[in-house]
Amino acid sequence: MYATSDFLSTFLLESLSKLPQLPKIIAVAVSGGIDSSTLAIVSKHVADKLNIDMVIFHVNHGLQEKSDYWANNVHLLAKILNVEIYEKKVFVNLNQSKGMEGSARIARYRAFKELSESMGIKYILLAHHLNDQAETVLLRLLRGSGVKGMVGMRPLSRVDSVFYIRPWLKVDKKLIELENKKFSLEKSWFPVDDPTNKDPLFSRGVVRLFLEPVLDKYWPQWKKTFSRHAMHMFDADLLLDNIAHNDLNEMDFNSIDFSFSLMRWRELEPKSRQVHVLRYWFFMNGLKMPSQARLDEIYKQLKHLHALGYDRRMKVQHDGHFVLCDKGRVYIKAN
User: Fold this and answer.
1) CA distances for 20 relative to 17, 62, 146, angstroms
2) In this structure, are residues 279 and 296 in contact, taking their beta carbons and an 8 Å threshold?
3) What is the pLDDT of residues 49-85, one digit of tens each?
4) Binding-site residue set for ATP
5) Which architecture, in CATH terms, is 6-218?
6) 311 and 279 in contact (C-beta within 8 Å)?
7) Residues annotated in the binding site, as ranges?
8) Is the pTM of this model over 0.85?
9) pLDDT, tens digit, for every residue of 79-128?
10) What is each CA distance from 279 to 174, 221, 285, 312, in whole angstroms?
11) Could you give the count of Cα atoms lying within 13 Å of 270 in the half-sphere of its Cβ?
12) Which CATH architecture has domain 251-334?
């Protein structure tokens, strides 16, 4: 049996220990690259140690000429590790406004949801690491993200009915590469290399090709610094959400239809508090954050609308839904 790094195993054990209950089975999302394959290798060791089952999920996007080769390579890894593998081929709609990366992400998470529900699996492990977290924070900073966005990737997140665990957000990629190299030399299995990782047509490719070399030269600790910044933003986000939660309850919030009192909202001071509770409200409704221009428009209409909403009909569209006001209650309705 291959002996994995205790250092990498420790982070995974720590993540699993924080769950309400140790799951009987976990899945590892494996693309076939260095990071995810190493996570599968380490996870197999940890799963055996904890006496729980582990499976591999592989999503074949069909976007690369070698997509089927990558899939076969992941099947080979599963055979070496003696674990079950479940592959799902997906269609990526490239006509969506989200671009190839965003569209592929949507298709991938949909596939994870279907695979998980079919097998009764609640937790999926993802191999994002310190470098990925730093890149995420940098890109969101460049896009003007707010506090919630600057949190970056969370150690534990939920999408639909599935929980995603990222145990290596504090682990440098170099340590993962060393582990993978050791495994490859011993087992003669080698990870695939995704050419889009450093393709300047994609935002992360631009960061890796042009920004990272400069940052590494002049600010060698920037990845750890950005990761630490994300943790600070996580704490700030929790504090702001706690304030917004209390404010929402003071606004005669209805937990059934998620509506609130327009008059009570107007009583909040200062303006930043009114704006933040709107952001929190959108988040609670499972909607993406509106742009600043859209948020300003919603704020403006709520501010000047008659207290009972009779003088004109408010109807602002956002993320496939409408923000409406009727008889002094503000609510969201699907388009």
Assistant:
1) 8, 37, 30
2) no
3) 999 999 999 999 888 888 999 999 999 999 999 999 9
4) 31-36
5) 3-Layer(aba) Sandwich (3.40)
6) no
7) 31-36
8) yes
9) 999 999 999 999 887 776 677 788 888 899 999 999 999 999 999 999 99
10) 38, 33, 10, 24
11) 1
12) 2-Layer Sandwich (3.30)
